[in-house]
């Protein structure tokens, strides 16, 4: 596509400058058609039609097209001049303006030039993350994937700092990984856009499933259920005891259609017990009793745990009938405290409010009463009595704040209940140990070749937490075997009981076809060039 456009552009300029011909509108029409189709197809594949990115792409193509038309007519207006200097001069001016515009951001806009002093300051990509990762590599040969609670520069830190992570910033993020995140309902927190993969949303099960063994942190805040093993500079290194090694095995399967019906917190638990075949595959298994294993459902009356009332006076003292507030400020608050930290997979707050007019209710959750706007949700409240629901996924908290109105008015909170699923970490530990009992022992691991040995007692599915791609090929004991797409976007290799040597290698899809096509195109261009010169008598 790129070579074709370049060829058309070169041909058009040759006709304008050398032959003073301007009947090249068909070439420009062809460019508009190719460019327009490319923009539309790319937008349909990667974005929703209502997405602002699509509108920006269409606007960009329109602007470029209009500039192209203007450029053509400017050149055409100079045909009355016999010399070529005017046309070439115009071309030079356009090229200078274009290069100056596009290079401005690179040269002048907050770009730091590397030097010895900058490197010694441990900033950006050369911060203490590099030292922390080197420490891990020197002390743990089995470590495969890590995550960070911070960005050294941006979401593509892993690419620049040389580790395998779970975040990414790329216009070509792997579709299989995106499919996994979307199906598991992991939020795209930054701009809600597929180019910005912001990680696993602190979901412990997903960290384990993707073999994330270490978490790097700069705030020195202990992530739940992790152990501090070292600190390099301002980076703390935390280790998870629920880590699953790269290349663990399943002996139970769940149908795709049954899996996608589960809520997000049950999907996480399900993957700790069984693998999911890709949709349309005929493998199946009885999973009716598995996917709620280790989950406990609880319900709490929040009005029984009220710690204090802020910016309001409480009229009634009987919380069974609800709490009537006489607001003294525009922000009356009901603060609820729990005896210990709640680690929840999903929480639902049901609140019944009687308001004299339309207003806005806001609910905060926090650790240690540190309430922030980022950890809150707002609901529009209608006049009169009504019940409203707020769902919180994968959050830990020991306090909740209910702001029943954002105005100075009397309001009554009739009922407030918290329903949540408490995750049993002991059960989780048992599941992770079971999966890792028979795992791959690696003796070589590169970006495009993996080799190791495994011994399984019975038929099992070997899970590799590498996004599924048709370029990957597998050999078991020297025999080619098909790679299955399992767990919504990753690779699985079926194994029979016994000892096995596993080899997995990657060949870029269509590489050979691309090379053959490029070679054939080059030959055709040389032939065309030879005959065109011969026709001109050169």
Keywords, separated by commas or semicolons:
single chain, 538 residues, alpha+beta, ten-stranded antiparallel β-sheet, five-stranded antiparallel β-sheet, 13 helices, 27 strands, 33% helix, transmembrane, membrane
Quick take:
The chain is an alpha+beta fold and 538 residues long. It has helices at residues 2-17, 25-46, 52-76, 85-108, 116-120, 128-139, 157-161, 175-183, 204-209, 256-260, 264-271, 425-436, 511-536, and strands at 145-148, 168-169, 196-197, 212-217, 226-232, 235-240, 248-250, 253-254, 275-276, 295-301, 306-310, 312-314, 323-327, 333-355, 359-366, 376-381, 384-393, 396-403, 411-423, 441-445, 449-456, 460-467, 472-476, 479-481, 484-486, 490-495, 498-506.
């Amino acid at each position: 596509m790129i070579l074709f456009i370049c060829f058309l552009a070169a041909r058009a300029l040759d006709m304008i400058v050398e032959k003073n011909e301007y009947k090249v509108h068909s070439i420009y029409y062809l460019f508009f058609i190719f460019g327009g189709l490319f923009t539309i197809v790319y937008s349909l594949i990667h974005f929703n039609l209502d997405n602002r990115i699509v509108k920006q792409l269409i606007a960009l193509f329109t602007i470029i097209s209009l500039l192209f038309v203007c450029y053509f007519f400017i050149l055409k207006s100079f045909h009355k001049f016999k010399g070529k200097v005017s046309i070439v001069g115009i071309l030079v001016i356009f090229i200078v303006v274009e290069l100056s515009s596009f290079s401005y951001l690179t040269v002048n806009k907050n770009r730091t030039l590397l030097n010895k002093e900058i490197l010694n300051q441990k900033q950006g990509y050369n911060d203490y993350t590099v030292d922390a990762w080197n420490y891990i590599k020197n002390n743990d040969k089995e470590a495969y994937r890590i995550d960070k609670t911070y960005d050294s520069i941006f979401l593509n830190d892993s690419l620049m700092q040389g580790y395998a992570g779970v975040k990414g910033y790329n216009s070509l993020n792997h579709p299989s990984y995106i499919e996994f995140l979307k199906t598991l309902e992991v939020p795209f927190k930054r701009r809600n856009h597929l180019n910005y993969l912001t990680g696993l949303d602190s979901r412990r099960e997903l960290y384990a499933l993707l073999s994330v063994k270490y978490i790097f942190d700069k705030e020195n805040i202990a992530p739940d259920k992790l152990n501090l093993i070292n600190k390099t500079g301002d980076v703390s290194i935390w280790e998870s005891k629920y880590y699953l090694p790269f290349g663990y095995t399943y002996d139970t399967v769940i149908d795709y259609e049954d899996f996608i019906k589960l809520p997000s917190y049950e999907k996480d638990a399900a993957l700790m017990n069984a693998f999911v075949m890709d949709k349309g595959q005929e493998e199946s298994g009885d999973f009716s009793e598995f996917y709620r294993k280790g989950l406990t459902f609880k319900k709490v009356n929040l009005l029984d745990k009220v710690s204090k009332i802020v910016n309001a006076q409480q009229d009634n003292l009987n919380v069974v009938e609800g709490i009537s507030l006489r607001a003294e400020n525009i922000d009356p608050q009901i603060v609820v405290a729990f005896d210990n930290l709640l680690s929840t997979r999903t929480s639902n707050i049901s609140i019944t409010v009687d308001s004299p007019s339309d207003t806005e209710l806001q609910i905060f959750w926090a650790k240690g009463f540190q309430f922030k706007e980022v950890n809150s949700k707002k609901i529009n409240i209608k006049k009169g009595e009504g019940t409203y629901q707020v769902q919180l996924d994968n959050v830990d908290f020991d306090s909740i704040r209910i702001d029943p109105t954002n105005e100075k008015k009397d309001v009554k909170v009739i009922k407030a209940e918290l329903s949540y699923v408490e995750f049993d970490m002991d059960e989780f530990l048992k599941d992770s140990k079971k999966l890792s009992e028979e795992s791959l022992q690696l003796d070589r691991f590169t970006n495009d070749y993996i080799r190791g040995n495994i011994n399984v007692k019975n038929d099992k599915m070997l899970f590799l937490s590498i996004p599924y791609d048709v370029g990957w090929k597998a050999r078991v004991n020297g025999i080619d075997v098909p790679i299955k797409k399992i767990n919504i976007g990753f690779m699985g290799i079926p194994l029979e009981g016994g000892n096995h040597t596993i080899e997995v290698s990657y060949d870029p899809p269509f590489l050979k076809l691309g090379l053959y096509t490029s070679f054939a195109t080059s030959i055709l261009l040389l032939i065309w060039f030879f005959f065109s010169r011969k026709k001109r008598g050169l």
